[in-house]
User: Fold this.
Amino acid sequence: MDYILVVAALYNLIGAFTIWFQDLPNSYDGNEITAQLMQFKIFTGGTAFIFGLVYLYVFFVPSLAIPLLVFGVALKTWSFISCFISFKKYNFPKSELIKVGIGNLIFAVLFLAYLLAQASGT
Assistant:
């Protein structure tokens, strides 16, 4: 079960690089929307990257699992909810809902199972 943390870390790190480098404009055109999108991509990719590092850290220091993975469960659940809302209301692609939203929901459930196993001592 501990290796779910390594898989989650890889998922986040790949996600970070995907966010940073997917569909980037060739150059900045001075458009405010482009600037906001780029800031969003840079920040969101960085957040995914940092949480990927946190999951690796928890793998190596499992005593920190409970305080840190509670935030991981919350963030991954929020990722699913935000993808689902975007899919329902804003024409978010179904493929992205599955890849990002459902993927994060699966990790939220697995993290919760990990936390419950840690709490029960197994």
User: Anything to note?
Assistant: The CA atoms of residues 15 and 99 lie 10 Å apart. The first helix runs from residue 3 to 21. The mean pLDDT is 90. The chain has one domain: 2-120.
